[in-house]
Amino acid sequence: MPVFDIPDSSRLRYRLMDARDLPLWYELDQDPEVMRYLNDGKPSTWEELETYFVPRVAAFTDPATGLGLWAVNDKESDAYLGWVLVRQYRFGEPACEPDNLELGWRFKRETWGKGLATEAAQALLTVFQRDPAIRAFCAVADPDNLASIGVMKKLGMRYVDQRLHHTPLRDFSCVYYERPRL
Fold first, then answer.
1. What's the helix, strand, coil split of the chain in %, to 5?
2. Which of 14, 96, 109, 164 has the most CB atoms at less than 10 Å from its CB?
3. Do β-strands 80-89 and 68-74 pair in parallel, antiparallel, or remain unpaired?
4. Domain contains 55
């Protein structure tokens, strides 16, 4: 059991994910629309998830601090809807910002437009903002991903700039939004 807990929100339940959740990650990544702004709509292969995604998630997951990917499930049906990421911004890079937590989200297409990503990200942000060691919260998105940018704005994040975002698989241009810890 994780030491860190995210209380249920009005419609959603949360659980810290680990390598046993590979089938859920795979299922989510098979929809080209879900992957549209991440890698031009190419579904992830099982091998890519197993050799890259699972070890990377494991590297930043910490049950004691709550960093990691949080499964988002419907409270009534317990159906898996997607996940919300919480990790140090620029994790794994020399310029890592431990006091700036990056939030990210990926949800099944049938959940889009219902405010679930905002509800889930807000639930996590509410808990993490209690930590006085955190200076800010941020998120990045493809400049054309207006839905994700809308979630950022609803979370109180403000546009800072457009920048190159680095991942071990590729670099891409993104918009960067941030808000201070309240």
1. 30, 35, 35
2. 14
3. antiparallel
4. yes
